[in-house]
Protein backbone atom coordinates (compact mmCIF):
# COMPACT_ATOMS: atom_id res chain seq x y z
CA UNK A 1 0.00 0.00 0.00
CA UNK A 2 1.56 3.30 -1.13
CA UNK A 3 0.28 6.61 0.20
CA UNK A 4 1.48 10.05 -0.86
CA UNK A 5 0.92 12.99 1.49
CA UNK A 6 1.00 16.55 0.17
CA UNK A 7 1.04 20.01 1.75
CA UNK A 8 0.97 23.09 -0.47
CA UNK A 9 -0.20 26.63 -1.23
CA UNK A 10 0.43 28.39 2.07
CA UNK A 11 4.08 27.97 3.03
CA UNK A 12 6.59 25.12 3.30
CA UNK A 13 5.06 22.86 0.67
CA UNK A 14 6.18 19.27 1.03
CA UNK A 15 5.56 15.66 0.03
CA UNK A 16 5.82 12.38 1.92
CA UNK A 17 5.66 8.75 0.85
CA UNK A 18 4.35 6.02 3.19
CA UNK A 19 4.74 2.40 2.09
CA UNK A 20 2.92 -0.22 4.18
CA UNK A 21 2.99 2.17 7.13
CA UNK A 22 6.73 2.94 6.89
CA UNK A 23 8.04 6.42 6.13
CA UNK A 24 10.02 6.05 2.90
CA UNK A 25 10.69 9.71 2.09
CA UNK A 26 9.67 13.22 3.13
CA UNK A 27 11.02 16.52 1.82
CA UNK A 28 10.14 20.20 1.38
CA UNK A 29 9.80 21.69 -2.09
CA UNK A 30 12.11 24.57 -1.15
CA UNK A 31 15.12 22.25 -1.19
CA UNK A 32 14.68 21.72 -4.95
CA UNK A 33 13.35 25.12 -6.05
CA UNK A 34 15.87 26.96 -3.82
CA UNK A 35 13.07 29.37 -2.80
CA UNK A 36 12.87 29.48 0.99
CA UNK A 37 9.47 28.44 2.36
CA UNK A 38 8.30 27.69 -1.18
CA UNK A 39 4.50 27.34 -1.18
CA UNK A 40 4.05 26.09 -4.74
CA UNK A 41 2.75 22.66 -5.69
CA UNK A 42 5.55 20.27 -4.56
CA UNK A 43 6.10 18.62 -7.91
CA UNK A 44 9.85 18.07 -7.45
CA UNK A 45 9.35 16.79 -3.90
CA UNK A 46 6.75 14.33 -5.18
CA UNK A 47 9.03 13.15 -7.97
CA UNK A 48 11.80 12.57 -5.44
CA UNK A 49 9.48 10.56 -3.17
CA UNK A 50 8.39 8.37 -6.08
CA UNK A 51 12.01 7.83 -7.09
CA UNK A 52 13.03 6.94 -3.54
CA UNK A 53 10.20 4.40 -3.38
CA UNK A 54 10.97 3.08 -6.88
CA UNK A 55 7.39 3.84 -7.87
CA UNK A 56 5.41 5.37 -10.69
CA UNK A 57 2.44 7.61 -9.96
CA UNK A 58 0.19 4.72 -11.01
CA UNK A 59 1.56 2.72 -8.06
CA UNK A 60 0.12 5.20 -5.54
CA UNK A 61 -3.05 3.94 -3.86
CA UNK A 62 -4.03 7.17 -2.12
CA UNK A 63 -2.96 10.80 -2.28
CA UNK A 64 -3.95 12.75 0.82
CA UNK A 65 -3.91 16.54 1.03
CA UNK A 66 -3.16 18.01 4.44
CA UNK A 67 -6.17 20.29 4.80
CA UNK A 68 -9.68 20.96 3.45
CA UNK A 69 -9.58 23.86 0.97
CA UNK A 70 -13.33 24.53 0.93
CA UNK A 71 -13.38 24.96 4.72
CA UNK A 72 -10.45 27.36 4.46
CA UNK A 73 -12.20 29.33 1.71
CA UNK A 74 -15.30 29.42 3.90
CA UNK A 75 -13.22 31.14 6.59
CA UNK A 76 -11.96 33.71 4.08
CA UNK A 77 -15.52 34.52 2.97
CA UNK A 78 -17.06 34.59 6.44
CA UNK A 79 -14.25 36.73 7.84
CA UNK A 80 -14.65 39.27 5.07
CA UNK A 81 -18.45 39.36 5.43
CA UNK A 82 -18.13 39.79 9.19
CA UNK A 83 -15.85 42.81 8.91
CA UNK A 84 -16.98 44.25 5.55
CA UNK A 85 -16.28 46.70 4.07
CA UNK A 86 -13.00 46.58 6.03
CA UNK A 87 -10.53 44.20 4.49
CA UNK A 88 -11.73 44.61 0.91
CA UNK A 89 -8.19 45.08 -0.54
CA UNK A 90 -6.95 41.90 1.21
CA UNK A 91 -10.06 39.99 0.12
CA UNK A 92 -9.74 41.09 -3.52
CA UNK A 93 -6.05 40.21 -3.52
CA UNK A 94 -6.70 36.70 -2.20
CA UNK A 95 -9.85 35.87 -4.16
CA UNK A 96 -8.40 35.31 -7.68
CA UNK A 97 -5.88 32.76 -6.46
CA UNK A 98 -8.54 30.87 -4.55
CA UNK A 99 -10.91 30.83 -7.52
CA UNK A 100 -8.20 29.78 -9.99
CA UNK A 101 -6.16 27.42 -7.84
CA UNK A 102 -6.60 26.80 -4.13
CA UNK A 103 -10.07 25.26 -4.09
CA UNK A 104 -9.35 22.95 -7.04
CA UNK A 105 -6.74 20.81 -5.29
CA UNK A 106 -8.08 17.48 -6.52
CA UNK A 107 -8.03 18.66 -10.15
CA UNK A 108 -4.53 20.09 -9.73
CA UNK A 109 -3.23 16.83 -8.25
CA UNK A 110 -4.75 14.72 -10.99
CA UNK A 111 -3.66 16.99 -13.85
CA UNK A 112 -0.14 17.81 -12.65
CA UNK A 113 0.70 14.23 -11.73
CA UNK A 114 -1.38 12.32 -14.29
CA UNK A 115 -3.02 10.55 -11.35
CA UNK A 116 -6.32 8.68 -11.63
CA UNK A 117 -6.51 7.17 -8.15
CA UNK A 118 -8.17 8.23 -4.90
CA UNK A 119 -7.59 11.69 -3.42
CA UNK A 120 -8.44 12.28 0.24
CA UNK A 121 -8.46 15.40 2.42
CA UNK A 122 -7.79 15.72 6.15
CA UNK A 123 -8.30 18.78 8.31
CA UNK A 124 -5.21 20.90 8.92
CA UNK A 125 -4.98 20.26 12.67
CA UNK A 126 -5.78 16.58 12.18
CA UNK A 127 -2.69 16.43 9.97
CA UNK A 128 -0.62 18.18 12.64
CA UNK A 129 -1.96 15.85 15.32
CA UNK A 130 -1.24 12.76 13.19
CA UNK A 131 2.31 13.98 12.46
CA UNK A 132 2.84 14.39 16.21
CA UNK A 133 1.40 11.13 17.50
CA UNK A 134 1.81 8.42 14.84
CA UNK A 135 5.62 8.73 14.39
CA UNK A 136 6.14 8.96 18.16
CA UNK A 137 7.25 6.05 20.33
CA UNK A 138 4.12 6.21 22.50
CA UNK A 139 1.24 3.74 22.44
CA UNK A 140 -0.95 6.37 24.05
CA UNK A 141 -0.35 10.10 24.45
CA UNK A 142 -2.04 13.45 24.73
CA UNK A 143 -1.74 15.66 21.64
CA UNK A 144 -1.46 19.45 21.49
CA UNK A 145 -1.21 21.35 18.19
CA UNK A 146 -0.64 25.11 18.04
CA UNK A 147 -0.03 27.24 14.95
CA UNK A 148 -1.22 30.33 13.09
CA UNK A 149 -4.38 28.94 11.53
CA UNK A 150 -5.55 25.95 9.53
CA UNK A 151 -9.09 26.04 8.16
CA UNK A 152 -10.65 27.55 11.29
CA UNK A 153 -8.64 25.94 14.11
CA UNK A 154 -5.58 27.66 15.55
CA UNK A 155 -5.08 25.27 18.48
CA UNK A 156 -6.41 21.80 19.19
CA UNK A 157 -5.90 19.05 21.71
CA UNK A 158 -6.90 15.44 22.10
CA UNK A 159 -5.58 11.94 22.63
CA UNK A 160 -3.85 9.31 20.54
CA UNK A 161 -4.30 5.61 21.26
CA UNK A 162 -2.67 2.88 19.17
CA UNK A 163 -3.80 3.61 15.57
CA UNK A 164 -6.35 6.35 16.26
CA UNK A 165 -6.38 10.00 17.23
CA UNK A 166 -9.32 11.89 18.67
CA UNK A 167 -9.40 15.68 19.00
CA UNK A 168 -11.53 16.98 21.86
CA UNK A 169 -11.54 20.75 21.42
CA UNK A 170 -10.11 23.59 19.39
CA UNK A 171 -9.52 27.33 19.48
CA UNK A 172 -10.78 29.11 16.35
CA UNK A 173 -9.54 31.95 14.16
CA UNK A 174 -8.94 34.84 14.61
CA UNK A 175 -7.87 33.98 18.16
CA UNK A 176 -4.45 32.48 17.53
CA UNK A 177 -1.30 32.19 19.62
CA UNK A 178 0.75 31.67 16.46
CA UNK A 179 -0.63 34.83 14.85
CA UNK A 180 -0.10 36.79 18.08
CA UNK A 181 3.57 35.75 18.05
CA UNK A 182 3.79 36.57 14.34
CA UNK A 183 2.30 40.02 14.99
CA UNK A 184 5.28 40.75 17.25
CA UNK A 185 7.60 39.20 14.68
CA UNK A 186 6.24 41.75 12.20
CA UNK A 187 6.40 44.62 14.69
CA UNK A 188 10.07 43.97 15.51
CA UNK A 189 10.98 44.03 11.81
CA UNK A 190 11.32 40.34 11.01
CA UNK A 191 9.54 38.40 8.29
CA UNK A 192 6.33 36.62 9.26
CA UNK A 193 6.38 32.82 8.90
CA UNK A 194 10.17 32.72 8.88
CA UNK A 195 11.51 35.22 11.42
CA UNK A 196 9.77 33.91 14.51
CA UNK A 197 12.88 32.00 15.59
CA UNK A 198 14.81 35.29 15.41
CA UNK A 199 12.34 36.79 17.87
CA UNK A 200 12.88 33.78 20.14
CA UNK A 201 16.67 34.19 19.89
CA UNK A 202 16.44 37.92 20.63
CA UNK A 203 14.29 37.48 23.75
CA UNK A 204 17.08 36.66 26.28
CA UNK A 205 18.70 40.04 25.59
CA UNK A 206 15.63 41.86 26.89
CA UNK A 207 13.46 42.20 29.97
CA UNK A 208 9.71 41.48 30.06
CA UNK A 209 8.78 45.15 30.42
CA UNK A 210 5.77 44.87 28.13
CA UNK A 211 4.27 41.64 29.48
CA UNK A 212 1.63 43.45 31.54
CA UNK A 213 0.79 45.65 28.55
CA UNK A 214 0.17 42.51 26.47
CA UNK A 215 -2.04 40.88 29.09
CA UNK A 216 -3.93 44.08 29.87
CA UNK A 217 -4.63 45.07 26.28
CA UNK A 218 -4.10 42.28 23.74
CA UNK A 219 -5.13 38.95 25.19
CA UNK A 220 -7.43 37.49 27.83
CA UNK A 221 -6.32 34.01 28.88
CA UNK A 222 -8.64 31.56 30.64
CA UNK A 223 -7.63 28.92 33.18
CA UNK A 224 -7.74 26.16 30.53
CA UNK A 225 -5.37 28.02 28.20
CA UNK A 226 -8.07 29.21 25.82
CA UNK A 227 -7.89 32.92 25.10
CA UNK A 228 -9.47 35.86 23.35
CA UNK A 229 -7.49 38.43 21.36
CA UNK A 230 -8.53 42.07 21.37
CA UNK A 231 -8.84 42.47 17.60
CA UNK A 232 -8.87 46.28 17.88
CA UNK A 233 -5.08 46.07 17.91
CA UNK A 234 -4.57 43.71 14.95
CA UNK A 235 -4.90 43.82 11.20
CA UNK A 236 -4.18 40.22 10.12
CA UNK A 237 -7.88 39.26 10.01
CA UNK A 238 -8.87 42.06 7.63
CA UNK A 239 -5.73 43.53 6.07
CA UNK A 240 -2.36 42.96 4.51
CA UNK A 241 -0.31 43.65 7.66
CA UNK A 242 -0.24 41.99 11.08
CA UNK A 243 -0.71 45.06 13.29
CA UNK A 244 -2.48 48.42 13.08
CA UNK A 245 -2.00 51.97 14.27
CA UNK A 246 -3.62 51.27 17.64
CA UNK A 247 -1.05 48.49 18.24
CA UNK A 248 1.76 50.85 17.23
CA UNK A 249 0.50 53.58 19.57
CA UNK A 250 0.29 51.06 22.41
CA UNK A 251 3.97 50.17 22.02
CA UNK A 252 5.18 53.69 21.37
CA UNK A 253 5.86 53.86 17.66
CA UNK A 254 5.78 52.18 14.24
CA UNK A 255 7.22 48.74 13.52
CA UNK A 256 10.98 48.45 13.26
CA UNK A 257 12.14 48.86 9.68
CA UNK A 258 13.64 45.54 8.49
CA UNK A 259 17.45 45.57 8.69
CA UNK A 260 17.42 48.67 10.94
CA UNK A 261 19.42 48.57 14.16
CA UNK A 262 17.88 46.35 16.83
CA UNK A 263 17.14 48.48 19.89
CA UNK A 264 16.69 47.64 23.55
CA UNK A 265 12.97 48.22 23.06
CA UNK A 266 12.90 45.47 20.41
CA UNK A 267 14.69 43.13 22.79
CA UNK A 268 12.28 43.91 25.63
CA UNK A 269 9.27 43.36 23.35
CA UNK A 270 10.74 40.03 22.17
CA UNK A 271 11.26 38.92 25.78
CA UNK A 272 7.75 40.00 26.75
CA UNK A 273 5.90 38.09 24.03
CA UNK A 274 8.19 35.08 24.50
CA UNK A 275 7.30 34.97 28.20
CA UNK A 276 3.59 35.31 27.42
CA UNK A 277 3.79 32.52 24.84
CA UNK A 278 5.57 30.19 27.24
CA UNK A 279 3.02 30.86 29.97
CA UNK A 280 0.07 30.20 27.67
CA UNK A 281 1.63 27.03 26.28
CA UNK A 282 2.22 25.75 29.81
CA UNK A 283 -1.36 26.60 30.80
CA UNK A 284 -2.66 24.75 27.75
CA UNK A 285 -0.48 21.71 28.41
CA UNK A 286 -1.53 21.55 32.06
CA UNK A 287 -5.18 21.57 30.99
CA UNK A 288 -4.50 18.81 28.46
CA UNK A 289 -2.81 16.79 31.21
CA UNK A 290 -5.81 17.31 33.50
CA UNK A 291 -8.36 16.30 30.86
CA UNK A 292 -6.50 13.30 29.39
CA UNK A 293 -4.50 12.05 32.42
CA UNK A 294 -1.94 10.92 29.81
CA UNK A 295 1.63 10.15 30.79
CA UNK A 296 3.03 11.46 27.50
CA UNK A 297 2.48 14.46 25.25
CA UNK A 298 3.00 14.94 21.51
CA UNK A 299 3.36 18.43 20.02
CA UNK A 300 3.09 19.82 16.48
CA UNK A 301 2.15 23.03 14.68
CA UNK A 302 4.50 25.92 14.01
CA UNK A 303 4.48 27.12 17.64
CA UNK A 304 5.90 23.72 18.65
CA UNK A 305 9.17 24.88 17.08
CA UNK A 306 9.51 27.24 20.05
CA UNK A 307 12.06 25.13 21.89
CA UNK A 308 12.06 27.35 24.99
CA UNK A 309 8.31 26.85 25.48
CA UNK A 310 8.75 23.12 24.84
CA UNK A 311 11.24 22.85 27.68
CA UNK A 312 8.88 24.69 30.03
CA UNK A 313 6.15 22.16 29.19
CA UNK A 314 8.53 19.27 29.84
CA UNK A 315 9.58 20.73 33.20
CA UNK A 316 6.29 22.08 34.52
CA UNK A 317 3.40 19.98 33.21
CA UNK A 318 3.99 16.59 34.83
CA UNK A 319 4.33 14.55 31.64
CA UNK A 320 6.87 11.72 31.76
CA UNK A 321 8.10 12.67 28.30
CA UNK A 322 7.26 14.97 25.39
CA UNK A 323 7.77 14.17 21.70
CA UNK A 324 7.79 17.00 19.16
CA UNK A 325 7.46 16.48 15.42
CA UNK A 326 10.73 17.82 13.92
CA UNK A 327 8.84 19.15 10.87
CA UNK A 328 6.27 20.72 13.17
CA UNK A 329 5.09 23.35 10.67
CA UNK A 330 3.07 22.93 7.51
CA UNK A 331 5.67 20.69 5.86
CA UNK A 332 4.96 18.08 8.51
CA UNK A 333 1.31 18.18 7.51
CA UNK A 334 2.18 16.09 4.45
CA UNK A 335 3.55 13.39 6.73
CA UNK A 336 0.57 13.59 9.07
CA UNK A 337 -1.93 13.36 6.21
CA UNK A 338 -0.30 10.20 4.85
CA UNK A 339 -0.03 8.54 8.27
CA UNK A 340 -3.62 9.42 9.15
CA UNK A 341 -4.74 7.65 5.96
CA UNK A 342 -2.73 4.51 6.74
CA UNK A 343 -3.59 4.14 10.41
CA UNK A 344 -6.97 5.71 10.94
CA UNK A 345 -8.73 5.74 7.56
CA UNK A 346 -7.52 2.25 6.59
CA UNK A 347 -7.45 0.95 10.20
CA UNK A 348 -4.01 -0.63 10.01
CA UNK A 349 -2.33 -1.70 13.27
CA UNK A 350 0.42 0.38 14.83
CA UNK A 351 3.28 -1.19 16.78
CA UNK A 352 5.52 0.90 19.06
CA UNK A 353 7.63 0.23 22.14
CA UNK A 354 7.61 3.54 24.10
CA UNK A 355 11.32 3.73 23.30
CA UNK A 356 12.14 4.33 19.63
CA UNK A 357 10.17 6.63 17.34
CA UNK A 358 9.60 5.92 13.63
CA UNK A 359 10.94 9.28 12.39
CA UNK A 360 14.35 7.71 11.55
CA UNK A 361 16.22 10.70 12.90
CA UNK A 362 14.23 12.75 10.35
CA UNK A 363 16.81 11.75 7.71
CA UNK A 364 14.16 11.26 5.04
CA UNK A 365 15.43 13.29 2.08
CA UNK A 366 17.76 12.81 -0.88
CA UNK A 367 21.16 11.23 -0.56
CA UNK A 368 24.14 10.99 -2.92
CA UNK A 369 26.57 8.11 -3.08
CA UNK A 370 30.34 8.42 -3.21
CA UNK A 371 30.04 7.62 -6.91
CA UNK A 372 27.60 10.53 -7.38
CA UNK A 373 30.00 12.83 -5.55
CA UNK A 374 32.97 11.66 -7.58
CA UNK A 375 31.05 12.26 -10.81
CA UNK A 376 30.19 15.79 -9.68
CA UNK A 377 33.79 16.55 -8.70
CA UNK A 378 35.42 15.18 -11.85
CA UNK A 379 32.79 16.66 -14.19
CA UNK A 380 33.48 20.12 -12.82
CA UNK A 381 37.25 19.77 -12.42
CA UNK A 382 37.08 20.41 -8.66
CA UNK A 383 40.08 19.78 -6.43
CA UNK A 384 39.27 17.17 -3.77
CA UNK A 385 40.89 14.46 -1.68
CA UNK A 386 39.20 11.09 -1.32
CA UNK A 387 39.63 9.40 2.06
CA UNK A 388 38.08 6.38 3.72
CA UNK A 389 35.02 6.82 5.91
CA UNK A 390 37.02 5.25 8.74
CA UNK A 391 39.62 8.04 8.79
CA UNK A 392 37.15 10.87 8.10
CA UNK A 393 36.01 11.59 11.73
CA UNK A 394 39.55 12.12 13.02
CA UNK A 395 40.43 14.42 10.11
CA UNK A 396 37.38 16.60 10.66
CA UNK A 397 37.98 16.68 14.42
CA UNK A 398 41.49 17.99 13.67
CA UNK A 399 40.11 20.72 11.39
CA UNK A 400 37.64 21.84 14.06
CA UNK A 401 40.35 21.96 16.73
CA UNK A 402 42.41 24.15 14.40
CA UNK A 403 39.56 26.68 14.29
CA UNK A 404 38.39 25.71 10.82
CA UNK A 405 34.74 25.89 9.75
CA UNK A 406 33.47 22.83 7.92
CA UNK A 407 30.54 22.21 5.59
CA UNK A 408 29.30 18.68 6.33
CA UNK A 409 27.29 16.90 3.60
CA UNK A 410 26.44 13.28 4.45
CA UNK A 411 23.68 10.76 3.82
CA UNK A 412 20.01 11.61 3.56
CA UNK A 413 18.93 15.22 3.98
CA UNK A 414 16.88 16.21 7.02
CA UNK A 415 13.10 16.71 6.89
CA UNK A 416 12.18 19.85 8.79
CA UNK A 417 13.85 23.21 9.41
CA UNK A 418 16.78 21.97 11.53
CA UNK A 419 20.10 20.62 10.28
CA UNK A 420 20.79 17.50 12.32
CA UNK A 421 24.13 16.31 10.99
CA UNK A 422 23.43 15.60 7.32
CA UNK A 423 23.48 19.13 5.84
CA UNK A 424 25.35 20.99 8.59
CA UNK A 425 28.02 23.60 9.15
CA UNK A 426 30.33 22.52 12.00
CA UNK A 427 32.76 24.46 14.18
CA UNK A 428 34.51 24.41 17.56
CA UNK A 429 32.21 25.57 20.41
CA UNK A 430 35.20 26.38 22.66
CA UNK A 431 36.14 29.43 20.58
CA UNK A 432 35.10 32.76 22.07
CA UNK A 433 35.04 34.41 18.62
CA UNK A 434 33.33 31.63 16.64
CA UNK A 435 29.73 32.78 17.21
CA UNK A 436 30.42 36.21 15.71
CA UNK A 437 32.52 34.74 12.91
CA UNK A 438 29.81 32.27 11.89
CA UNK A 439 27.05 34.89 11.96
CA UNK A 440 28.87 37.60 10.05
CA UNK A 441 31.19 35.76 7.66
CA UNK A 442 29.49 32.43 7.03
CA UNK A 443 25.74 32.81 7.58
CA UNK A 444 25.55 36.57 6.81
CA UNK A 445 22.91 37.07 9.48
CA UNK A 446 22.19 39.10 12.61
CA UNK A 447 24.94 39.13 15.23
CA UNK A 448 22.63 38.22 18.12
CA UNK A 449 21.62 34.85 16.71
CA UNK A 450 22.76 31.88 18.85
CA UNK A 451 24.15 28.57 17.59
CA UNK A 452 23.18 25.10 18.68
CA UNK A 453 25.42 22.47 20.25
CA UNK A 454 25.40 18.88 19.02
CA UNK A 455 26.49 16.57 21.84
CA UNK A 456 26.84 12.80 21.84
CA UNK A 457 24.15 11.40 24.10
CA UNK A 458 26.40 9.78 26.76
CA UNK A 459 27.85 13.21 27.58
CA UNK A 460 24.71 15.35 27.29
CA UNK A 461 23.94 15.34 31.01
CA UNK A 462 27.51 16.30 31.85
CA UNK A 463 27.40 19.47 29.75
CA UNK A 464 23.72 20.45 29.95
CA UNK A 465 20.92 20.30 32.49
CA UNK A 466 19.06 17.76 30.39
CA UNK A 467 18.12 14.19 31.23
CA UNK A 468 15.96 13.62 28.13
CA UNK A 469 17.08 12.91 24.57
CA UNK A 470 16.73 15.90 22.26
CA UNK A 471 17.57 14.41 18.85
CA UNK A 472 15.65 17.02 16.84
CA UNK A 473 17.05 20.17 18.48
CA UNK A 474 13.64 21.13 19.90
CA UNK A 475 14.49 21.56 23.59
CA UNK A 476 16.66 24.14 25.29
CA UNK A 477 18.77 23.32 28.31
CA UNK A 478 20.97 25.42 30.58
CA UNK A 479 24.69 24.77 30.38
CA UNK A 480 25.77 22.88 33.49
CA UNK A 481 27.11 25.10 36.24
CA UNK A 482 30.43 23.27 36.32
CA UNK A 483 31.08 24.37 32.74
CA UNK A 484 30.10 28.00 33.33
CA UNK A 485 32.57 30.79 34.00
CA UNK A 486 32.16 33.28 36.79
CA UNK A 487 31.20 36.80 35.73
CA UNK A 488 32.31 39.92 37.57
CA UNK A 489 30.13 42.75 38.81
CA UNK A 490 30.78 44.89 35.72
CA UNK A 491 29.49 42.17 33.44
CA UNK A 492 26.30 41.87 35.50
CA UNK A 493 25.59 45.54 34.79
CA UNK A 494 25.64 45.03 31.01
CA UNK A 495 22.43 44.81 29.01
CA UNK A 496 21.28 44.43 25.41
CA UNK A 497 23.72 43.35 22.72
CA UNK A 498 26.66 44.19 25.00
CA UNK A 499 25.86 40.85 26.65
CA UNK A 500 26.87 39.13 23.44
CA UNK A 501 30.60 39.62 24.03
CA UNK A 502 30.75 38.02 27.49
CA UNK A 503 32.38 34.60 27.66
CA UNK A 504 30.02 32.56 29.84
CA UNK A 505 31.26 28.98 29.70
CA UNK A 506 33.98 26.73 28.35
CA UNK A 507 31.75 26.28 25.27
CA UNK A 508 31.01 30.00 24.73
CA UNK A 509 30.03 29.76 21.07
CA UNK A 510 26.90 27.75 21.94
CA UNK A 511 26.04 29.38 25.28
CA UNK A 512 23.32 32.01 24.91
CA UNK A 513 23.26 35.15 27.08
CA UNK A 514 20.93 33.43 29.58
CA UNK A 515 23.24 30.36 29.76
CA UNK A 516 20.81 28.33 27.64
CA UNK A 517 21.51 26.22 24.57
CA UNK A 518 19.24 24.62 21.96
CA UNK A 519 20.63 21.12 22.35
CA UNK A 520 20.81 18.31 19.81
CA UNK A 521 21.66 14.94 21.30
CA UNK A 522 23.40 12.73 18.73
CA UNK A 523 22.73 8.98 18.71
CA UNK A 524 24.60 6.09 17.10
CA UNK A 525 21.37 4.49 15.94
CA UNK A 526 20.35 7.35 13.64
CA UNK A 527 23.62 8.99 12.53
CA UNK A 528 26.69 6.85 13.19
CA UNK A 529 29.21 8.91 11.20
CA UNK A 530 28.22 12.19 12.85
CA UNK A 531 28.38 10.46 16.22
CA UNK A 532 31.88 9.15 15.41
CA UNK A 533 33.04 12.62 14.39
CA UNK A 534 31.98 14.15 17.73
CA UNK A 535 33.32 11.15 19.62
CA UNK A 536 36.68 11.62 17.89
CA UNK A 537 36.63 15.33 18.83
CA UNK A 538 36.05 14.27 22.43
CA UNK A 539 38.77 11.61 22.51
CA UNK A 540 41.39 13.87 20.97
CA UNK A 541 40.44 17.24 22.45
CA UNK A 542 38.25 16.40 25.49
CA UNK A 543 35.13 18.11 24.16
CA UNK A 544 32.05 15.99 23.23
CA UNK A 545 30.26 19.01 21.72
CA UNK A 546 30.42 20.70 18.31
CA UNK A 547 28.58 23.66 16.85
CA UNK A 548 25.91 22.44 14.45
CA UNK A 549 24.13 25.00 12.29
CA UNK A 550 22.25 24.57 9.04
CA UNK A 551 24.23 24.41 5.82
CA UNK A 552 22.87 27.53 4.13
CA UNK A 553 23.21 31.29 4.16
CA UNK A 554 20.57 33.77 5.20
CA UNK A 555 17.56 33.79 2.91
CA UNK A 556 18.32 30.44 1.27
CA UNK A 557 17.06 26.94 2.08
CA UNK A 558 19.37 24.28 3.48
CA UNK A 559 21.50 22.76 0.70
CA UNK A 560 20.18 19.63 -0.96
CA UNK A 561 22.62 18.57 -3.67
CA UNK A 562 26.43 18.52 -4.00
CA UNK A 563 26.10 21.49 -6.34
CA UNK A 564 24.14 23.47 -3.74
CA UNK A 565 26.79 22.63 -1.14
CA UNK A 566 29.69 23.63 -3.39
CA UNK A 567 28.08 26.95 -4.29
CA UNK A 568 27.54 27.76 -0.61
CA UNK A 569 31.10 26.64 0.18
CA UNK A 570 32.60 28.95 -2.42
CA UNK A 571 30.41 31.95 -1.59
CA UNK A 572 31.20 31.95 2.13
CA UNK A 573 34.13 31.77 4.52
CA UNK A 574 33.91 27.99 4.94
CA UNK A 575 37.37 26.45 5.13
CA UNK A 576 36.51 22.87 4.17
CA UNK A 577 33.65 21.07 2.49
CA UNK A 578 33.10 17.38 3.18
CA UNK A 579 31.04 15.68 0.47
CA UNK A 580 30.59 12.14 1.74
CA UNK A 581 34.19 10.84 1.87
CA UNK A 582 35.71 13.65 -0.25
CA UNK A 583 37.47 16.60 1.40
CA UNK A 584 37.54 19.93 -0.42
CA UNK A 585 40.03 22.52 0.86
CA UNK A 586 39.09 26.14 0.03
CA UNK A 587 42.74 27.03 -0.54
CA UNK A 588 42.97 24.50 -3.36
CA UNK A 589 39.87 25.60 -5.28
CA UNK A 590 40.11 27.52 -8.53
CA UNK A 591 38.37 30.86 -8.89
CA UNK A 592 34.70 29.96 -8.86
CA UNK A 593 32.42 31.05 -11.69
CA UNK A 594 28.96 29.52 -11.08
CA UNK A 595 29.29 27.68 -14.39
CA UNK A 596 29.02 23.97 -13.82
CA UNK A 597 29.02 21.12 -16.23
CA UNK A 598 25.39 20.10 -16.61
CA UNK A 599 24.64 17.91 -13.61
CA UNK A 600 21.31 16.14 -13.21
CA UNK A 601 20.69 16.73 -9.52
CA UNK A 602 18.47 13.80 -8.75
CA UNK A 603 18.11 12.00 -12.06
CA UNK A 604 14.38 12.65 -11.71
CA UNK A 605 13.85 12.26 -15.43
Low-confidence region ranges: 595-605
Judged by helices, strands and strand pairing, the structural class is alpha/beta
**Corresponding CATH superfamily of the domain at 370-588:** Carbamoyltransferase, C-terminal domain
Largest sheet: 9 strands, mixed
Proportion of residues in helical segments:
25-40%
Radius of gyration: 24 Å
The CA-CA distance between the termini, in Å, is 24 Å
Overall pLDDT, averaged?
A: 93
Keywords:
605 residues; nine-stranded mixed sheet; 21 strands; DHBP synthase; 20 helices; 35% helix; alpha/beta
Produce a short descriptive summary.
The chain has 20 helices and 21 strands.
Structure description:
- By secondary structure, the chain is of the alpha/beta class.
- It has a domain of 219 residues: DHBP synthase (Alpha-Beta Complex), CATH 3.90.870.20.
- Helices cover 35% and strands 18% of the residues.
- The protein is built from 20 helices and 21 strands.
- It has a nine-stranded mixed β-sheet with strand order 13-21-20-14-15-19-16-18-17, with helices on both faces. The chain has a five-stranded mixed β-sheet with strand order 3-2-1-4-5, sandwiched between helices.
Amino acid sequence: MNILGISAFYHDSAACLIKDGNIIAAVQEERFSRMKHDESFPFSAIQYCLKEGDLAISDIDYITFYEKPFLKFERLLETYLQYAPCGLPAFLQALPRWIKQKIWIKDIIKSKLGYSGKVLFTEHHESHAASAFFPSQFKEAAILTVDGVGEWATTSYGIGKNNEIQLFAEQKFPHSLGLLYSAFTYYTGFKVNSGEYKLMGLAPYGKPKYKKVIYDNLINVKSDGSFHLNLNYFNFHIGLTMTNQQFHDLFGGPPRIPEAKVTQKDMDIARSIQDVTEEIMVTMARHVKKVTSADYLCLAGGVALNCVANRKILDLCNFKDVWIQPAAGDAGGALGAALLTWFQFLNNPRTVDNNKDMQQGSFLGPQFSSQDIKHFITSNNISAQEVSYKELPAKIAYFLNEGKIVGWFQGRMEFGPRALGARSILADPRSATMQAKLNLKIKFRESFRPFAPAVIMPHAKNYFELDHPSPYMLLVAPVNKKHRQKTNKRVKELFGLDLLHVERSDIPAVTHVDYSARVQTVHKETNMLFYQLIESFYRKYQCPVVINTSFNVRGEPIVCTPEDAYKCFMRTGLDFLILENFILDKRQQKNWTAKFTQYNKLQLD
